[in-house]
Amino acid sequence: MRAVLVVNPQATSTTAAGRDVLGHALASELKLEIVETAYWGHAADTARAAVADGVDLVIAHGGDGTVNEIVNGIFSVAEVGDPSVPMLGVVPGGSANVFARALGLPRDPIEATYRLLRAVAEGSSRWVGLGRADERWFTFNAGVGWDADVVAEVERLREHGREVTPALYARTALACYFRTARRDPRITVRFDGEDPVDHVHSLFVCNTDPWTYLGSHPVRMCPETTFDNGLGAMAVTGMNVYAVLRQVADMLRDRAKPHGRNSFRRANVGSLRVTCEEPLRLQVDGDSVGERSEVEFRSISDALRVAV
Length: 308
Hints:
This protein is 32% helix and 35% strand. The chain has helices spanning 16-27, 42-53, 64-75, 98-102, 109-122, 146-159, 166-182, 241-252; strands spanning 2-7, 31-36, 57-62, 87-92, 125-133, 136-138, 141-144, 187-191, 197-200, 202-206, 212-214, 217-219, 231-236, 263-269, 271-284, 287-307. The chain contains 8 helices and 16 strands.
């Protein structure tokens, strides 16, 4: 089997020694090419080349951003259902690794590598659904408003040398909460066959559960959402501090379902459209992708084959 291993050397939990071990293990069973990313978009460029070259398997060794880039690179040149689409393999190397953990893959890179090799040898794989935010694909979550502000601010801090930790995310989320609470709700959400929902502060869109992790704690925003059904959506319509804290506590409980007068949820959604009175930030899979005044979210079933 021809494979490309895409390594992000800047990922949180990757090391040069670890990458060498993984490369040797994979090369013992695969016809392997190794590419270390050197710039933003390099993983996407490598995935596009893999499609053109007829590669069988593209392996992401990095965080969720590396996985997202590869997925977007593949589907920038291939259609869903195209037999030329390579299978995806994942060896976690980031801090959260939400996509890999949602698939039940080991967090340890060595264990994940041997799990991948066993899956290849046994022909074990599964199809997963993906989400789209306009032209951008996402594997596990997207959002407009509060969470997108958090992602953008954490990225800014990381560029200035700050270590990305759950504590940094928590402090940043708190600071962004107060900024969001002070401004008027600017978002309108439209679901097919329903009246528009106005005066929304933030919208969270899930392609699977959990939404993310705070260290070892899963954040379960849409517990009924999986890779096998439509999108889940949660909109925050009020920023009362006590109600928000109660929702956060619920989401940190195993399989708890968020509730309250200041939010609404939908499950198994095929598509939804968001409009903003003025441009707000959008994030997909934990990456900030700029500001939008309008976004269409869609669920694409059985889009990608993953070795598991």
